[in-house]
Design brief:
This protein is α+β, with helices and mostly antiparallel strands. The chain contains 3 helices and 5 strands.
Length: about 80
């Protein structure tokens, strides 16, 4: 199962604190679906694309179909816009 870090605003908003959970997801898209089932409303945050996805410490630009292995670590980061 992938290790998912729900921290910062995302953790506080849906769980009340920073947590790490294990989720059996095939890819990031499936992970989004499972997290929305566990924490209703989280899917709307993902749909707004206001988060970047880091997989094993690397930010992945188009992570939607990125496969997740049993030992994968996934972290969501606020998207930063430059200008």
């Amino acid at each position: 199962m992938a290790r998912v870090l729900l921290n910062g605003d995302l953790g506080r908003r849906f769980v009340g604190k920073d947590i790490e959970i294990k989720v059996a997801a095939r890819n990031v898209r499936h992970l989004y679906q499972l997290l929305d089932e566990l924490y209703p409303g989280m899917g709307e945050v993902f749909a707004a694309r206001s988060l970047a996805v880091a997989i094993d410490g690397d930010i992945v630009a188009d992570a939607f179909l990125e496969p997740l292995e049993d030992d994968t670590e996934v972290c969501f980061l606020p998207a930063i816009r430059g200008g």
